[in-house]
Structures are given as C-alpha cells and as structure tokens.
Amino acid sequence: MPKTTDADLDLRRAILDTTRTLLVREGYSKLSMRRIARALGYSATSIYLYFENKDALFHALIDEGMERLYRVLKASQEGWTDPVERLRAVCARYVRFGLENPEYYELMFMPHPRHMERYPADKYRRARRNLDLVAGALADGAAAGAVVPGDARVQASTLWSALHGAVALVLAQRIDIRVDQEAFLEAAIAHAVGSFLVRS
Amino acid sequence: MPKTTDADLDLRRAILDTTRTLLVREGYSKLSMRRIARALGYSATSIYLYFENKDALFHALIDEGMERLYRVLKASQEGWTDPVERLRAVCARYVRFGLENPEYYELMFMPHPRHMERYPADKYRRARRNLDLVAGALADGAAAGAVVPGDARVQASTLWSALHGAVALVLAQRIDIRVDQEAFLEAAIAHAVGSFLVRS
DNA sequence: CTCGTAGCTTAACGCTGTTAAGTGTTACGC
DNA sequence: GCGTAACACTTAACAGCGTTAAGCTACGAG
After folding, report:
1. Whole-angstrom Cα distance, residue A34 to residue A42?
2. Is A93 exposed, middle or buried (0-12, 13-18, 19+ CB in 10 A)?
3. Are B189 and B89 within 8 A, CB to CB?
4. Are A65 and A108 within 8 A, CB to CB?
5. Out of A55-69, A145-159, A162-176, B99-113, least confident range
6. CA-CA-CA-CA torsion sign (A53, A56, A57, A58)
7. Could you give the 3-state DSSP secondary structure of residue A17?
8. How many whole angstroms separate alpha carbon A147 and alpha carbon B154?
9. Which 3 state secondary structure label does DSSP give B139?
10. What is the longest distance spanned by two Cα atoms in chain B?
C-alpha cells in the first residue's frame, strides 16, 4: 500500500492518466505494464509501487470511469419536469457515454470475469450509485403514476441490462450489417424505457 | 490453408474438441496454444498447420457455438401453437444457453473487438441465422396480431440485445448483490418480450 | 559522518503468440 | 530400386508479457 506523500500521489496519478490515454489511443490489447512505463519514462516495476498488479490498476480506472459516468448521468437528469422525459434522457445519456468512450466502457463492463477474479464482486461500489440513480428516476416515475410499480432495484437492473446489451453489441460490432445502427439504438432505448411505462 | 485429407481433418477436429474442453474446464484466460498442444500430445506449432492463428481457432469455435445455439433455439420453438408463448420459449432458451455455457457465450458474444480485429465484421454469418430465427418468431406474432408491427430485423436485434444484456451482466457478475438474480432474469425476459406485445 | 529509508532500477523467471528452419516418413515418376 | 517431392510434424528462436527479488542512489535526521 503506497503512502500518501505528494510525490507518491503524483506518480500514481500520472500512471492512471497515461494508462487512460494509451487505452483510448491504442486499445486494450496493446496495453501492457511495460508500455505504460515507457510512455511515462519509468521502469515497468515502478508501477507495482503504486498498484498491486495490472488488475488493480485497471480496477482503479474502472472506479474513475464509474465516477465519470455518474457525473454525466446526474447532469443529464437535471432540469426535467416530466419524470418520463427525465428517464429517457438518462438512458440516452448512458448509451451515448458507452459509445463515446468505448475503451472505457469495455473496461468497466465487459471484461472477462476470470480476468478480474482477484476482486470480490461487491467491490463495484461506485457502480451502485449509477444503479441507484436509475432506480431513483424509476421511483419518481412510479410516484407520478407514469411508471409501473415494482421493486425499483430489480427494475433498474432490468432497464440497465437492456441498455447495456445495446451498447455492448454495438461496440462489439455484433449488430447485423443489414440493420441500421441508429434505428436499432433508438428502438433499443424506446423499448427499454417503454416497457416500464404505464399505458394510457 | 489446410488440405482436406482425412488425417488433416482428424487433427483439426481434435484441436477444436480439446480447445472447447479446456475452455470449459480452465477458462479463457488459461487457454494458450501451448496448453492446447500439450493436452493433445502435439507441439504448439502444429496448431498453426490447421489454423492461421489463435484468433482463427477461436473463430472456428465461435462458429460451432453459433451452430449449437441455433439448434437449441430451433428445437425450443417447435411444438407451440401460440406465437407469443413460442417467442417467450425462444428467449428463455437463449438466456439459459448463455448461463449454461458461460465460456462459450463469452467467446461468442463478449470478446473485446480489438481482440478479433483481424476478422471482418460480416464474418458472423451463422449468427445471422439466430437473428433470423427470432425475427421469424416476431413476424409470426405480428401476423397473428399479437406483436406490434415494425421492421422484424430491427425488432429482433432489439429483443436480442435486451436478452444479451441480461446474460452478459449476470456472467460478468455485475448484477448488484442486493438484487435477486432469478427475479432479475425473469423480469428481463418478461420486459424484453413484453415491450413487443400488443396490449389488449 | 553514518544510518535509514524513500523511490526507483536492473536482472531474472516462466509464460505467451508466432515464425523459420529442419526432420523424418511416405508416395510417386522413371 | 532410386531420387525427389510432398506431407506432417518438431525444435529453436524471437520479442514480448506480468511479476518478483534484489540492488542502487539520493537525501534527511541524529
């Protein structure tokens, strides 16, 4: 565990920043401890002074990504009066975040579980805030009579999983080329949200 | 490109079978060309006589997985009279396939795109059959007046992406531990299908 | 001046995917 | 029957990987 002197935190921060940059620029598969170190002008082993191993470094980045996602989602839900419009805005913003930050998104939600098995499943605390945010929007909609009642957390997970499926398949380029991608994304969001709305 | 003599096909088949076995037994991260070869009693480089590289080997496995999935989905949709029940059955079977064959499923739908970038996106032909199967079930439902009309292929992609999201998050252990997994899966399938049904 | 230590490096281990070159066996034209 | 070509496979090697152990250097305190 690193101490918390200024110098320590400086290099730790630099490692995180460089890793994120390399991740976006060159992609996940080309990211190695040695490459990160080379870009920083340090030796590869220095990284181990601040992060237990490669997974721990990734995990720190995931945490940062969750924080970023939380901020954009929170911003997107402000200023709406209609709870349904607000819900739609949050969902659309989530999808946009995923598509605009593919490498980040993959790191956050798509790693092979085995690759992260050193970490307990409950470590994704910041992820919960994002789920709770969606759950809150759903609860508000239910209170207004526009959303079907139910366990808000199960509902939020369900809604989220539908959005995640859309983002994941687009990022992985698994959407059939005969299908228009924009139309698909629009339909995915509409159906995900729509399935929770009370029909009048 | 390997010739098609009998001996050739024998080892090719053995490589595929062993790889699948190792994948299930030890997981994706421990799968290496050398391990596969050791399990087979051959040298690692022999695999390159039958597969261009590791990705090509994985790709062949993906093709096999798509074929298996197609067979179970096809079987699951037979014997139903109500098109909606049939649609539900196909969706439930899809989710079950993913949860029962996690390693397979990950290989088929969740690899980092960069990891597979040597392959053109249109190579997933067998995957289309699965999409067309869902599209067919939706079209039948629409013909019976039980499913909302629309582009069947976009609808199928949307439905599929919702199911995929649920499977992917469960496999990646990203579902909040405070959420009951069974309830979540049930809700996910119900909402995915339900959003396409005509309300009476 | 000496000691401890903070911060970093070098060397090494065992692993990875992949290529180039080599080996032995088998089949065939003459 | 002999030379040759093709085939099926191996060995050796390269460059890179994550990670560990040990060592080095500079600096502040006593």
Report:
1. 9
2. middle
3. no
4. yes
5. B99-113
6. positive
7. helix
8. 25
9. helix
10. 64
Task: Note whether A177 contacts B122, CB cutoff 8 Å.
Answer: yes
Distances (CA, A) of B96 to A57, A141, B72: 34, 32, 10
d(CA A127, CA A70): 8
Q: How far is the CA of A43 from the C1' of C21 (A)?
A: 36
- Dihedral sign computed on CA atoms, order B114, B115, B119, B125: negative
C-alpha dist (Å) from residue A154 to A5, A27, A149, B48, B181 = 43, 33, 11, 47, 9
Q: In the block, which residue shows the tokens 């899966």?
A: B185
- How long is the CA B80 to C1' D17 vector, in angstroms? 53
Q: Over 70: is that where the pLDDT of A111 sits? A: no
Taking the C-alpha atoms of residue B69 and residue B87, their distance in angstroms, rounded to an integer, is: 15
In angstroms, the first-to-last Cα distance of chain B is 57
Q: Cβ separation of B154 and A179 shorter than 8 Å?
A: yes
HSE value, Cβ hemisphere, 13 Å, CA-based, for A29: 9
Nearest-CA neighbor of B23 among B119, B120, B95, B108? B108
Say how far A55 CA is from D13 C1', in Å.
31
3-class SS at A151? coil
Helix axes A125-143, A152-171, angle to 10 degrees: 120
Q: What confidence tens digit (pLDDT) does each residue in B136-182 have?
A: 999 999 999 999 999 999 999 999 999 999 999 999 888 988 899 99
CB pairs under 8 A between A and B: 162
Q: How far is B9 from chain A (nearest CA, A)?
A: 29
Kindly tell me the sign of the dihedral angle through the C-alpha atoms of A110, A112, A114, A116.
negative
- Closest CA in chain B for residue A113: B172
Task: Give the whole-angstrom CA distance, residue A179 versus residue B160.
Answer: 13
CA distance A54 to chain B (A): 14
* Amino acid sitting at position A42: Y
pLDDT of residue A67: 92
pTM of the model: 0.89
Select from A114, A161, A186 the residue whose CB has the most chain B CBs within 10 Å, as the one to mutate to test that interface. Answer: A161
